[in-house]
Sequence to fold (439 residues):
Amino acid sequence: MHRGMTRRGFLRHGVLAGSGLVILSNSRLIRGTEANSKLNIAAIGVAGRGGADVDGVQSENLVALCDVDQKHAAGTFEKFPNAKKYKDFRRMLDEIHGQIDAVVIGTPDHTHASAGVMAMKMGKHCYCEKPLTRDVYEARVMATLANEKKIATQMGTQIHAEANYRRVVELVQSGVIGTVGEVHVWMGANLNGPAVPTDRSQPDAPTDQPPVPENLDWDLWLGPAAYRPYSPSYAPFGWRYWWNFANGQLGDFFCHYCDLAFWALKLRAPTTVEAEGPLHPESAAKWTIAKQQYPARGDLPPVALTWYNGGPYPAFMKERNIPAWGSAVLFIGSKGMLISDYGKHQLLPEDKFAGFQPPTPFIPDSIGHHQEWIQACKTGGPTTCNFDYSGALTEAALLCNVALRTGEKLTWDAKALKAVNCAKADAFLRHEYRKGWTL
Fold:
């Protein structure tokens, strides 16, 4: 809570402590949109997770739907028969930009930035799935542009809106476990495997070249990514596990789980990043252990954050009696520990906190992750996962893979967007776009 702001004022304005909120400077209703009227929205990528995002904003007017795979998107198309249908979002935005207020982006990661930047340059509010972008440079561009345009933005880390994360943030920020200087985050840990998996084999790029399905525009699906022949290993579901399109399991889940650490501890940019895992030029790592160091933030001490995916649990868990949750965030403080997953949390050691009464909640419940963004579009109010906050979170996530692919411990200059000790990192911080595609 900001000094000088009463609790009532805090709740009224919806300011969430440490959440990285950006309040739009123009307090008037955006472009004359009335708070009780409906937004006109265009959606890009409307199947799978993108279809769920369309459902999340169906209270508004869906003016246009865009997807490169007409068969995969058929279910969403049928739900909104009055919406215009497109394959190419560039054509869609060129044709109907004057008819829409906002866009929702649910495409594979490699086209997030192309679609988002084009829409935001037109002044459109933007909701985009996580991770915000495929590479670090794109994340910075998206965050900078959103701030410049003063538009309402939200990244699709929907768990951020659930009550459990709010209660954990309150416990940490209230000092219940003391000062926190160490965080361990694991996702999909291998319960019974060896300390370090011995099988480091990775799949090569597909060599078979089946015909492109008639319902899929493969050139548009590739978008700005380097050309690859069509393969069902890429689309519609496997793209996440190839460097050309995404960042593997780490890219998928870091923004969900480490969001809790970023929010609770007010993290921003790491100063050093190192990572280990099996490395392959085409496919993302099956497992990763990444270590990041964050600087002091005001009265808050430096933080060491370690991420684990697809491999072993932290080695110290048994000796410290840490419960073997399949995926979790573990805060280690000077007075105790706190473990949390999406839906539950627990103070440790249990006997020390027996009978503990949590502090009175001070972070307001969310009206819903999509609804929060919709309201912000209409009123100029804040969102909790705006692109300034989620852009920094995405940068931190993707830097783990940059460190892995360089094989170096990176010394990171966030302001300059550069690993000052590792020139070869530049090749992984920013992808070269295919001809015909730009930011």
